[in-house]
Design brief:
Layout: H1 6-13, H2 24-50, H3 53-60, H4 64-70, H5 74-94, H6 103-118, H7 121-132, H8 138-165, H9 176-188, H10 191-197, H11 205-223
Amino acid sequence: MPTPSKTSRSARATAPEAPLPGSEETGTRTKATTVLQAARKVFFSHGFSAATTDMIQQEAGVSKATVYAHYANKEALFAAVLTAQIDASMQTMRDISHRPGKLKETLQAFARTYLGIVLSEDSLALCRVAIAEARRFPDLSSKFYVSGPAAMAVPVAQALVQAVAAKEADLGGLAPSIAATLFLSLVRNDAQLRCLTHADTRPSSAQLTEWAASAVTLFARAIATDRDVPGNAKRKARPAARPATKAKLPKKSRPVAAKKSR
């Protein structure tokens, strides 16, 4: 039997419409989900390069033909795992909306949710794989960055646009997208790198909340107007410095001529 081409396999990898309960399609979808969950476990445990379709097949408890019936190859499987993980995370960020007059609360919701996402075991595992395979599989790593870290800033930027329009925030001419990226960088600080390099590190929920609050306090004081953030007193404009004046030199005293003795 000829091996299916990449094109035909890719076409089958596309998810169909939602099946009717009890139909044959339901069983097909269940098998696809089983394969995807097995692939996720294998990739996160062994990385992309070391993982094989045989490992995934055995983990899923299905035949190799079943694996290829749903996913064209290992790359397609990893892309599906990546998409599923990111879609779930992105939805939690999209669910946050800015409420008028509640800039700090909105930022806190974004910060705490974001930390919970990027410091979760699954996200850390996915990040390690994407970084490790960046040279050999740049397209996969690029997809991870564009769909994950870069996309996470979009809902934050949208909230900042609303806050600026309501005169609750002043970005000082900075683009909302850049401000959002800076905010998320401040939120994750060195916690993400620490967790990436120390697999046994498990921040508590209280720590995540504290880190989020610290980042929000600093960021909000930088952009918020005085009416929104408590303690963010309106800064008085400093008086312009007076131009420097030349110091007056003491007048030279004329030497007194010595009287000639007669």
